[in-house]
Amino acid sequence: MFAYYLQLGLRSLRRNPMLTALMVMAVGFGVAASMITWSVFRAVSGDPIPGKSSQLYTVLVDNRGPQYNDNGEPPEALTYTDATALVAAHKAAHQTLFFNVAPSVLPEGNQSLPFIADGYATNADFFNMFEVPFEYGGAWRAGDDDGRAAVAVISHELNQQLFNGANSVGREITMDRHSYRIVGVTAHWDPKPRFYDLFSHNAFGDPVQLYLPFTRAIDVAMDTSGRNNCGSNTDFGVGREAWLHGECVWVPVWVELPDPAAATGYREFLTHYAAEQQRAGRFHWAPNVRLRGVNDWLDYERVVPPESRISLMVALGFFAICMVNTIGLLLAKFMRRAAEIGVRRALGAPRREIYRQFLIEAAAVGLAGGVLGLLLTALGMFGVGLLFEPEIARLAHLDLSLVATTLLVAIAATVLAAFYPTWRAAQVQPAWQLKSN
Amino acid sequence: MQIRPILAAMRHHKAGTVLIALQIALTLAIVCNALFIIQQRITRMSRPSGVSESNLFVIRSDWADKSDTQRIDAQMQADLIALRQLGSVQDAASTNSFPLRGTGWDNYIKLQPDQPRMTTDSAIFFSDDHTLATLGTRLIEGRNFTASEVAAQKPRDAMHAAQVIISKDLARRLFPQGSALGKTIYVSMGQAPSTVIGVTDTLQAHMTGSWAGPYAYNAVLIPARLLNDYTYYLVRAKPGQLEAAMRDAPKALFAQSRMRIIDHKDGVMSFAQVRQRAYERDVGMAILMGIISVVLLAITAAGIVGLTSFWVGQRRKQIGVRRALGATRGDILSYFLTENLLIGIGGVLAGAVLAIGINLWMVTQFEMARLSLAYVVAGVAALLVLGQGAVLAPALRASRVSPVEATRSV
């Protein structure tokens, strides 16, 4: 019976092509608009490190006090002093700190021109905490951090550019005139949003190209290429040393705490640390510290662009109107066949059969709309670069799950829209229909 | 026109009536808000930058060897001389940032050194005596920097600018009464005051985000070369020679020294490109809202055509009877037009309330302005006209139903 009803449905689609085309277009446009904006939204609002996002926390300490801080909130990163002290304390299972670097990289051979590569000066814990996958070699050892070693990890992409993708572990890379030994090459790794570096507004930045030890970068006086926030500070003196040990924040710190008990413990430690600073006379206020998990941090920093939210909502509203439209058109289409329904009912078809026939017919409309929607979504993926800036637009892509969602949403929505028209069709009085014709 | 029989007829097809009214209401609500968003974005994009944008371009030069600040300083001065000597170039200046760049150095501005909270926030543009001429920005008060006032500034040292030039909007914000000229302000973390020696005409800051709205036109020009890991050169080409200058300038810089990096993709950008980048989000939003509005109106119109056609088909006999009883074609036509108008009025009333409701909600969720009532009024008129237009074809078809129909069957 299902196949027969489907056949009937498809035949009925051909019977009044105008009405059918209208419905299919409404469903198609509605579902395509929703899917295009949804694909962008899911990319910008997803969990960047599923499975571990509940164990990673960023550490914030108020070094400005109630008079200067941001409405009671500590600044969004730490000072060099606090960052290095907290990491050295080793109170969490793992802890990392970093700042953005943009050294000039000089490829081997005298023909090539230097270029700027973006990366992080960090410590060995960074790699296992953030689950960085490796193609060759691995992270440097904790001993390299303490030894202030001239070592580096480069990305798959940079390895392609510099060494044509060969295993470059053990080879040298020149950054800002200093030479570093490569210990690892990461596989392609680019979590989006880049939750750990929201301080420098890098949520959707280009993939990281290299990493080197924090301690080494400080030794060679590499400057941060990211944000440096001095707030409303008074004079911090002259020169790099004064700035380094001053109260400007520029170093994000992350800790890994496997369970809530560890998080509570760490929060206590942090409060204790701040209280100690107060006793030492550096802070003139009560401890004001935060431990923010990945999702909390993404929310707090408002990573999802308002444009993405607004366009998703407008698209959903648009879809709703398309569905109202479809209800009206289905009603017209079904009621036009009142005579046919009357005959079927008079010949003994129960209401259930009428329901079945018309819902299947609606599903056929939904399927046709879904296929059109899929085509439009695929087309929209090319145009998405026009609607969102490149960093965001490149996140939207058509994958199997989106294809399935598109078809499913189209069919489900149309069948849902068909309930009222079908109910009306099932209410048709056979006697009346037979009499009037 | 008799309205009562129309209302009575509507009661017989409640569902269709409600569906059309609902569709009109939702369409009005969304289209009003979408058009309002478009208008807001266009207003943002058409704000003046205060810069004479044609013939201006920007070069970013990173120092490949990150040499010491003294060498950077010497190189920057040599670069500027080389750029200014080019035949296609009118003037050039070095800076850390420029209007519409998107990010940059911001400082709190205070009127007293020990003031805990800032008076306002402002973009910091490192400048020299050529900057205003290169940007094409006019001084409305005071004087320009002299070459001897331009110092070298190391990035991690506190700033001590004895003289500054500020933008008109910042001057008005700091000194609402009277002139800012000769007054002292505190622009850096240091305790040293800076004297305002000049006020420019409108000059936009580097931040374009809506959150930076209150500071969008605050700029302080500091007379110094910032000796950072990179620098920007603002270059004004001679009229009509922008392309030639954009080709010549990087060559001249590389001839000066090869130990620099000028990105092949966005190392050299005309100001038109800078502007396009700054507002690509707004352009995208406006395009998306435009597409959605157009498709939405088309779908709503098509829906009205579809349902009305169905009603006309259903009522051919009644129409035939009316015609046989003496109703003119005009009567039938105006019947359907009036019916649609009544449904439309119901829809737009609900839609207007919904449009304002959605906007009020968006005001609380996003940094959005209140919807101006003019949009609602225009939207109401547009949807009523759209409804009448959509119903015209089926109504005309109805008016052509022959009185003979009345005699067929029944």
UniProtKB/TrEMBL annotation, chain A:
InterPro entries: ABC3_permease_C, MacB_PCD, Macrolide_Exporter_MacB
Keywords for the protein's UniProt record, in alphabetical order: Cell membrane, Membrane, Transmembrane, Transmembrane helix
Domain of life: Bacteria
Membrane topology: Multi-pass membrane protein
Record localization: Cell membrane
MF-aspect GO terms: transmembrane transporter activity
ABC3 transporter permease C-terminal domain sequence ranges: 313-430
Membrane-crossing residue ranges in chain numbering: 21-41, 310-332, 358-388, 400-420
Domain MacB-like periplasmic core, first and last residues per copy: 20-217
Pfam family, one: MacB_PCD
One GO cellular component, as annotated: plasma membrane
This protein's name: ABC transporter permease
Provenance organism: Rhodanobacter spathiphylli B39
